[in-house]
Amino acid sequence: MPTEAPITAPQPFRTNAIDRLVMRRADDWHVHLRDGAMLGAVAQFTARQFARAIVMPNLDPPITSVAAAAAYRSRILAALAPSDGFTPLMTCYLTDDSDPDEIERGFEAGVFAACKLYPAHATTNSRLGVTDIRRIYPALEAMQRIGMPLLLHGEVTGKEVDIFDREAVFLDLVLSRLVVRFPALKIVLEHITTADAVAFIESGPATLAATITPHHLAINRNAMFEGGIRPHFYCLPVAKREHHRLALRRAATSGAAKFFLGTDSAPHAIGDKQAACGCAGIFCAPYALESYAQTFEEEGALDRLEAFASEHGPRFYGLALNTERIALERTPHVAPHRLGAGATELAPFHAGASLNWRFVGAADERD
Ligand code: NCD
Ligand code: ZN
């Protein structure tokens, strides 16, 4: 008698899907928290999702001294509740005149965690950035000696260089020389956007790492032009072609310790984005972990999210891993078009789009 196939209830399309994701609390290794009313409006979004964050120094005027960084750190903490348990890690903005002694003093005092190099005129508030990398060699010597990381906005700024090529040209003209000239200097190439950068980091020395944003994993450059000009998808470095996005997704989800989470959440008031000359920056802090989780799930790599979000960064910086645990739940929801806090209205990344995961905070007894 022929055996009949057992009759089973129809299975949902998902296989082996999980509905609750519990992991070590994450850190954000690149964020813009701004100052004043904007700081008050945005800091909570980062503190809610992350235990620590590397805070960018591109205020106006920029953070170039230990005293300014300590005061800024106090303002960040004052904008949050102590119960948030959030630690801002401060950075020093490099200029042509950076003083190596001030940098070393700030690092030894535990105020500066790293220095940030903005090539002059590369991005928001970078007019006081470095005009020629050789001008900061004394600072880089000191940083190499004391083990202080250099964080790079990796783009050249020459008018003759196409905006979509600025990162690749930076690798050729600047970074390739820097790693030879300073072989022991820890360097983070921030918010990478190209397959070229992925290849450079993978084949580079162990002193070299990179952060990857949620938006560069989720969109390619078409997003800026879909049906019209879409300023909320404009950031720097600008999103590139699809094959670059796919290379970033492969790198982030590969498990390689050289790649870690850095949101580059960069809020600007809606009126400053939707303008004749709109500001660069994507406000991705509110749904950052949801966005990364979506990418990792699409790549079949949810089991590697924790290492990318919570382990590779602190290991590179030589800091302890967080011990608390957080949870995300599979709860499909649509991100709002606007998030308001006080008088400030902001458009979050994923506005109006649906997300599969929701960050729910600290893990509980269920976990
Ligand atoms: C950042 C900002 O607005 O401060 N903008 C951005 O597009 N990412 C600066 C930066 O990181 O380039
Ligand atoms: Zn940034």
Tell me, rounded to a whole number, the average pLDDT: 95
CATH architecture: Alpha-Beta Barrel
Low-confidence stretches: 1-6, 9-13
CATH homologous superfamily grouping: Metal-dependent hydrolases
Bound small molecules, deduplicated: N-carbamoyl-L-aspartate, zinc ion
The total domain count is 1
Spatial extent as radius of gyration? 21 Å
Which strand order does the major sheet show?
2-3-4-5-6-7-8-9
Write a concise synopsis of the structure shown.
With 367 residues, the protein is of the alpha/beta class. The chain has a single domain (26-322), classed as Metal-dependent hydrolases (TIM Barrel).
What's the helix and strand layout?
Elements: E1 20-24, E2 26-31, H1 36-49, E3 50-55, H2 66-78, E4 87-93, H3 100-108, E5 112-117, H4 137-146, E6 150-152, H5 166-181, E7 187-189, H6 195-203, E8 208-212, H7 214-218, H8 242-252, E9 259-261, H9 270-273, H10 288-298, H11 305-317, E10 325-334, E11 339-341, E12 344-346, E13 354-362
Parallel strand pairs: 2-3, 3-4, 4-5, 5-6, 6-7, 7-8, 8-9
Antiparallel strand pairs: 1-10, 10-13, 11-12
The structure holds N-carbamoyl-L-aspartate and zinc ion.
How is this structure best described in words?
The structure is a single chain. The protein is α/β, with parallel strands linked by helices. The protein has a single domain (26-322), classed as Alpha-Beta Barrel (TIM Barrel), CATH 3.20.20.140. The chain contains 11 helices and 13 strands. Strand 7 (187-189), helix 6 and strand 8 (208-212) form a beta-alpha-beta unit. Helix 3 packs parallel to helix 4. It is globular. The termini are far apart. Residues 1-6 and 9-13 have low confidence and may be disordered. The protein binds N-carbamoyl-L-aspartate and zinc ion. The site of N-carbamoyl-L-aspartate has 11 residues, from loops.
